[in-house]
Amino acid sequence: MTSSSRRARSGNTDGLAIFGGTASDSLADKICAYLDTPRARAAIGKFPDGETLIKVDEDVRGKDCFIVQSTCPPVNDNLMELLITIDCLRRASARRITAVIPYYGYARQDRKSEGRTPITAKMVANMITTAGADRVLTMNLHADQIQGFFDIPVDHLTAAPVLAEHFLKRDLHDAVFVSPDVGNIKFGSDFASRIGGELAVVHKRRVSGDQAVAVNIIGDVKGKRVMMFDDMITTAGTVSEAARLVREHGAEAVYVAATHGVFAGPAVDRLLAAEMNEIVVTDTIPISPVVAQRLGNLTVLSVADLVGEAIRRIHEHRSVSALFCA
Fold first, then answer.
1. Which residues are catalytically annotated?
2. The pLDDT of residue 4
3. Residue-level pLDDT at 30
4. CA 255 from chain center: how many Å?
5. What is the pLDDT, as a whole number, of residue 2?
6. What pLDDT digit, counting tens, does each position of 47-87 carry?
């Protein structure tokens, strides 16, 4: 279910209501188009003091409601909007509320790496549950174990089918799949198995929160077309350093793909300096026109069909994991 031209197979959408937050406005429209169902109406605004104001403009009593909202920058505003919408639907007697969070913010702090620090990934999970969500649908969490932070069901999607379909259309002779860090080997090996090719790993050393230094590469990339896959590109320190390292080791071309294109801080400048052949992300996070204009080699793929199919299966009480079975 990765082609944007497809439409959902016939299914029951009676009692289904899909809402879109301001962070995922376009994605919500595409999901509704895939499911051939009208988007549920809600007014989203601000009080004079900056507080978020939300009013659902239709009857949701007894309905199966889905709220599509990424908690991307501005993270706090988008998170509060999600929580308030959940509370609004709960008080309006929705039968079930699913928080569809294509990009789950605050996920990096998933453990105490040093003393006197929070575990925000768990805290946000508690907030979503307390607000009244019955389940969560998300994509490529920063760490798989975050699913266990929720006391409600979590459907964890991967954008691998969407990204893999894109690269299968490329000339893949002498391809090698490179994981830009050791922690992302599982994601890289998933692509290697889907597309076919060797796997290499970059060993990095993190200097600070927004800077990492690639130290060595495990595997042969000389004369190869290198494809690097990561869950997200935030400040681009990891992928830029990894691209520099594989170039130094004789890579013929470098392609970078990530599910979430955060592009914060110095990300664009770093990506431009890295001289990559192509940068591919999905629309889990809306890409600003400025970023799109500066990065001429940027390709944005839509996950609307994939998320839409997952929503349909949840609504019909069917398997979501079957989407990823070979």
1. 204
2. 41
3. 98
4. 19
5. 44
6. 999 999 999 999 999 999 999 999 999 999 999 999 999 99
For the chain, give percent helix, strand, coil, nearest 5: 35, 25, 40
CB neighbours (10 Å) of residue 203? 13
Q: Which pair of structure tokens corresponds to residue 188?
A: 């890289």
Contact residues for 292 (Cβ-Cβ < 8 A; gap 6+): 298, 300
Output the pLDDT for position 130: 98
Distances from the Cα of 207 to the Cα of 114, 167, 295, angstroms: 16, 32, 26
Domains of the chain: 16-158+304-324 (3.40.50.2020), 161-301 (3.40.50.2020)
The pTM assigned to this predicted structure is: 0.92
- A 10 A CB-CB count for 247 gives 17
Q: Which residues of the chain have pLDDT under 50?
A: 1-6, 326
Tokens 């431009």 belong to which residue?
A: 272
Percent of the chain with pLDDT over 90: 74
Task: Compute how many other C-beta atoms are within 10 angstroms of the C-beta atom of residue 261.
Answer: 28
pLDDT for 207 equals: 54
User: Is there a cis peptide before residue 286, judged by omega within 30 degrees of 0?
Assistant: no
In the block, which residue shows the tokens 């266990």? 148
- CA contacts within 13 A on the Cβ side of 31: 31
> Which amino acid is present at 311?
I
Q: What angle do CA 181, 302, 244 make, to 5 degrees?
A: 30
Residues 300-319 as b or e (16 or more Cβ within 10 Å = b)? ebbbbbbbbbbbbbbbeeee
On whether the CB atoms of residues 119 and 137 are closer than 8 A, the answer is no
